[in-house]
Structures are given as C-alpha cells and as structure tokens.
Design brief:
alpha+beta; D-amino Acid Aminotransferase, Chain A, domain 1; 9-stranded mixed sheet; 6-stranded antiparallel sheet
Amino acid sequence: MSNLIYINGKLFLEEDAKISIFDYGFLYGDALFETMRSYGEKIFRLDSHIERLFNSLKILKIESPLSKKKLKEAIYMTLKANKLSDAYIRVTISRGKGEAGIKPYSCKKPTLIILTKKYNPISNKRKKEGYTAIILNQRKNSKSIASELKSANFIENILAKIAVKESGADEGFFFNEENFLAEGITSNIFILNKERIITPDLKCGILPGITRGVVIELAKDMNFFVEETKIKENTLFQADEIFITNSLLEVMPVVMLNSIPIGDGKPGKITQKIQKAYKELVKKETKSLY
C-alpha cells in the first residue's frame, strides 16, 4: 500500500508526490530536515526536533511555512493518515521554488514535506553484538556554519557512507581539520574510560544531536561524569567502551574500530546501562509498550 506524503498542506500518494525541478532543495541542497521516531503513536522528543529545526531555519533565513504548533499538528496528521504507530518520520523544509543561478531572494514560498513510514527497529541481537566503525579520511570543517545544521546538502556523508560500505564496517567517524574527533556519518559519538564519559564538544564541528542531548542528561542523572571536550585519535583506541547515538539507532555499542577491538570487543556494561535507561525514558515519555 502506497504511503501518503504531505507536501505544502496536502497529502499525496507516493507516485503523485512531486516538487518543482527549480526547488532550491533539489538544485542546491538548500534545505533542512529532521528525522525522528514515534513509539506507539507518540513522537519522542518532538519539541526538541522542532526547536532545532526552527533555530536552523533562522540561521538560513528561511521562514517556516507553519508555526511550531501547526507543524506538529501536520506531522501527527500525516502519521495518522498512514495509520502508523511505530514510525520513521522525516520533515524537510527547503527555500522553495526559485530561479536557477543561486538567487535565493527569487524563492517566494518554502516547500514543506513530511514523510512517514513503518519503522523496523534494530534487533536486540544486533544491539548486543554492536557495530564496527572506521576512521574516515574526510575532514569536517569545524568553522563552517554547515557543521551545526541538519542540512539536505549531504554529499560529505554520502561519500563517507560509500567508503564505509566498501570497508565492510557499519559506521564511519569524522575528525575535523584540527584532527579532533567530530561525529559519525549519521551519529554522535561517546567514549567511556574508567566510568568517565566524554563526547566531542559542539565546537568540534558536530550536529547537536537530540539523542546526544538525552544521553548526556541520562548519564548525569545516573551519576556518571560527562565531559564535552576535544578528543584525539589515540583516546579512541584507549577507550574501554564506545557507543554512538541517533534518533533511529538510539544507543548503539561500537565494538571494533579500524578492525581493532574496543575493550574486550563486546558491548560494555555502562553502554548497556545507558541503553536500558534510554529505553525506560522512551517508555515513560511516550507511554508505549516499547
């Protein structure tokens, strides 16, 4: 059965969902997006996603076509129209249709797209096995405004994903131009050493992940020492545990980096505690059976 796609206030079947070839999201990647999950018909930390989206729109000088309240209503309406409960949700806002030739002021009306589809979560078996990762040759520019935006201009991440696929790993880790750890292709990174948790500082050129923020809150509530800081490569290989986070993966252990085992090569005890705490928080906030 074809999903219904929300475009600028209307729902379309997938095969009928179209935007202009002159849309700046298509022409130049001039768009922002948010990816989120719903559990039992309730979207986890929706307000945080909306807040980040609106902050980024302000930076790009794009006016949202809907208020925060109306956008949330549109997301839930699309979810309901597709009769979904546990779902993947992506909201995209572009500068809209304009003239070719980088003329942003020719774009008169932003384009809003909401995609929803059934989400099949990573299995518990996979989470118990953990992911493998590699260090990428590409570098993130920590001085670029793009590093803090969830932009549709994803060419760096796409090339990195190809490199990871060719290597046989699951994820890739970016360093920045100063050789400090930045982020994963689609994740934020946490390192544990002697019950001390560190994660790259926002100034290292990373996206302020929603799940990253939740995990920092949780870890502090669990009385772990958490520090946002600059991290060198050797710190990764000296780690007792490493895990990555995003809205879809939640908390995923990394058991091998560049074919070298992290710790004993198995998901660590602290990572598992944080996985469990995250799951309990999701159940509490969404009132789902997750």
